[in-house]
Design a protein that fits this description.
This protein is α+β, with helices and mostly antiparallel strands. It has eleven helices and twelve strands. Among the domains are: 145 residues, Beta-Lactamase (2-Layer Sandwich); 154 residues, 2-Layer Sandwich (Heat Shock Protein 90), CATH 3.30.565. It starts with a helix and ends with a strand. The protein binds adenosine-5'-diphosphate.
Length: 449
C-alpha cells in the first residue's frame, strides 16, 4: 500500500514538474521570439532612415552587426547584403515580406532561408526611393538566448527530483502510519483517535464481525457442552436398561430360577426394558433429525386436526389402560408443515398428558384455525408441574420425578422433541400448569412459516 501511495505522489510531482518545465519553455521561447521581432522592427526603422539619408555610403561604413541587412530594388534585385554576395543572390521579388512591403510599405515573415540554410525572422520597409530595406535575424539567436535561460532550470531538475522523491517518501509514510497503528483487536477504540474518517465504516464492520465471532464462539461452546451432556446422559440412560436385561438374563442362564412363574416374570422384565431402550433409541434418532432444523424434510399442506385425531387413536389403548378419557375437539386447520413431525408433537404431548394423569382423568386436545395461525392445545387435569420446573422440562433428559417417568415408560426426551419439532415449523410452545390440578400445553403454528 505504501509503495502504491508513494508511486502515486511521485507520479503527480513528476507530472507537475514536467508540465511546469514545458510551459516555462514554451513561454520563454515565445517571449524571446517576440523580443527579437520588436528589436528587429526598431532596427529596421533606424537603418531605413540611415540608408534614406546616406544611400550606399551607409553600407560602406557598416561594421559588425547582429542583424543581416539586405537592400533590394523594387523589381527584386539585390543591391546589397552584408552576409552574402549580392551578385549570386536570386531575385527576391517573390519573398513574402518583400511582396508585402512593395504593396503596403512594410512587411514581416518567418521562414527557412534558402541562402543561409536556417530559419529566419524578416522585417522589411519601403524607402522613399521605392527600394526595400530588409533586416533579419536567425532563429539560432533566439535558441541561444532560450538555452541561456533554460540551462540553469534544467540543471535544477535533479535537485527538484530528489526533493520530490523525499517528499513522496515522507508523505506516503505519514499516510500509512495511522493505518499501521490501528488496533484491530478492538477496532472502535481507534475511532476516538486520529483515524481516517473514510475507514470508520470498515472499523465498524470489523467490530461487528468481532462481536459476531464472539457470539458464534459462545454459541458453539454452548452447543458443544449440550452435546457432551447429551452423550453422557444418553449413555447413562442406555446403560441402565442394559444392566437390568443382563442381570435377569444371567439369572435365567444360571438355572437358579426354578419356578415357571419367576421365569415368566424375568422374561417380562427383559422385554419391558428392551422396549424402553428401543423407545429411547427412537427418540434419540428423532431428536438428532430435528437438530438439523428440518433440512431435507418434505413439507406439504396438511390438516392439523386430522393428525390430532390419528395421534389420539394411537394412544386410545394406553389411555383406557390408565383410565383416562382422551378427546379431540375443534376444527380442521390446514397448515404447511412436515406431517410426521407434527404428529410427533401431538403424540408426545398427549402421551405425557395421559401418563401424568391419575385414573379417571381427562385429556382434551383442541385444534383451532385462526386467520394467521393454527393452534393446538393439550389440556389435562393430571398431577401438574411445580412452578420451579416449568422452565426446565423442555431440556433433554430433564424429568420432574425420575422414577414416575420411568414407571410410565418415559425417556426424558418427549418435550425436547416437541420443542425442536415446533422450531422446525417456526412455532411457539407455551405451558401453564398448577401442581395437583393439571397442565395446558399450547403450540401456535404461524401460517406464514
Ligand atoms: P418423559 O419421557 O419423562 O415424559 P418429557 O420430556 O416428555 O419426558 O417430559 C419431561 C418431564 O416433564 C416429565 O418427566 C414430567 O415430569 C413433566 N411433564 C411433562 N408433561 C407433563 C404433564 N402433562 N403433566 C405433568 N408433568 C408433565
Amino acid at each position: 500500500m505504501r509503495g502504491k501511495i508513494f508511486r502515486s505522489i511521485w507520479f503527480v510531482l513528476l507530472a507537475t514538474l514536467t508540465v511546469s518545465f514545458g510551459l516555462t519553455a514554451v513561454f520563454l521561447y515565445d517571449h524571446f521570439t517576440e523580443e527579437q521581432l520588436e528589436q528587429l522592427r526598431g532596427e529596421t526603422k533606424l537603418v531605413s532612415q540611415a540608408v534614406t539619408l546616406n544611400g550606399q555610403d551607409y553600407f560602406d561604413r557598416l561594421g559588425d552587426t547582429d542583424f543581416r541587412i539586405t537592400w533590394i530594388t523594387s523589381d527584386g534585385t539585390i543591391l546589397y547584403d552584408n552576409e552574402a554576395d549580392s551578385h549570386f543572390m536570386p531575385n527576391h521579388l517573390e519573398r513574402e515580406e518583400i511582396r508585402e512591403t512593395l504593396e503596403s510599405g512594410y512587411g514581416e515573415s518567418s521562414r527557412y532561408s534558402s541562402t543561409l540554410f536556417e530559419r529566419q525572422l524578416y522585417t522589411a520597409q519601403r524607402l522613399p526611393d521605392g527600394t526595400v530595406l530588409r533586416l533579419s535575424v536567425t532563429q539560432a539567436t533566439i535558441w541561444t538566448l532560450f538555452l541561456h535561460f533554460m540551462l540553469p532550470l534544467a540543471l535544477s531538475i535533479p535537485v527538484l527530483l530528489t526533493i520530490s522523491l523525499l517528499l513522496a517518501s515522507r508523505l506516503s509514510e505519514r499516510i500509512v502510519q495511522p493505518i499501521n497503528e490501528l488496533n484491530l483487536d478492538s477496532p472502535l477504540e481507534n475511532a476516538n483517535q486520529e483515524a481516517y474518517e473514510e475507514i470508520l465504516p470498515l472499523l465498524r464492520r470489523l467490530d461487528d464481525q468481532h462481536r459476531q465471532i464472539a457470539r458464534d464462539r459462545e454459541e458453539l461452546e454452548k452447543t458443544s457442552l449440550i452435546r457432551e451432556e447429551f452423550t453422557a446422559n444418553a449413555s447413562h440412560e442406555l446403560k441402565t436398561p442394559l444392566h437390568v436385561i443382563s442381570g435377569y438374563a444371567e439369572l435365567l442362564e444360571s438355572g437358579m430360577v426354578s419356578s415357571e412363574e419367576s421365569r415368566r416374570l424375568f422374561a417380562g422384565k427383559i422385554r419391558a426394558e428392551s422396549q424402553r431402550m428401543s423407545k429411547l433409541v427412537e427418540d434419540i434418532i428423532g431428536l438428532s433429525q430435528l437438530d438439523g432444523g428440518g433440512a431435507g424434510m418434505t413439507r406439504e399442506f396438511t390438516d392439523l386436526y386430522r393428525i390430532a385425531v390419528n395421534a389420539a387413536e394411537s394412544l386410545a389403548t394406553a389411555a383406557s389402560d390408565a383410565g383416562v378419557t382422551l378427546k379431540v375437539e375443534g376444527e380442521s386447520a390446514v397448515m404447511y408443515g412436515v406431517p410426521q413431525v407434527l404428529y410427533s408433537i401431538i403424540y408426545n404431548l398427549c402421551s405425557n398428558a395421559v401418563h401424568y394423569s391419575n385414573s379417571g382423568g381427562r385429556v382434551l386436545v383442541t385444534v383451532r384455525d385462526y386467520r394467521d395461525k393454527a393452534e393446538l392445545t393439550v389440556a389435562d387435569n393430571g398431577i401438574g408441574i411445580p412452578a420451579e420446573d416449568l422452565d426446565r422440562i423442555f431440556e433433554r433428559f430433564y424429568r420432574v420425578d425420575k422414577s414416575h417417568s420411568k414407571e410410565v415408560g418415559g425417556t426424558g426426551l418427549g418435550l425436547s422433541i416437541v420443542k425442536h419439532a415446533a422450531m422446525v415449523h417456526g412455532a411457539q410452545v407455551g405451558v401453564e400448569s398448577e401442581l395437583g390440578k393439571g397442565s395446558v400445553f399450547t403450540v401456535s403454528f404461524p401460517k406464514q412459516a
